[in-house]
Amino acid sequence: MANIEQRVLENFREELGEVADLALIRAVRVRQGDPAQVILEQAQRLAVDLLIFGSHSAGAGVDVPIGRTAVRLLQLSPVPVYMVPLAQHLGRRKV
């Protein structure tokens, strides 16, 4: 898992670029399992006050506004949830 975590950090460095932005990343954790269940378990273990995650589904098209994992987290999370739309989905609406 450490190798995967290192690759994720490298991707962050490529995307964020600036050192100041990288300082905001406190940790990268890679876990296996059902995404919603793993996120909820980690949130409980870390005693988080808020969950922030993407609203999109990796396998869905633009017409699907919210993914399966996002739906499950909204239903099951004991803490408030803040959903972030995928940037490429913003402004795309059917007329």
Automatic annotation (TrEMBL):
InterPro entries membership: Rossmann-like_a/b/a_fold, UspA
Domain of life: Eukaryota
Domain UspA: 22-85
Regions that span the bilayer: none
Listed name of the protein: UspA domain-containing protein
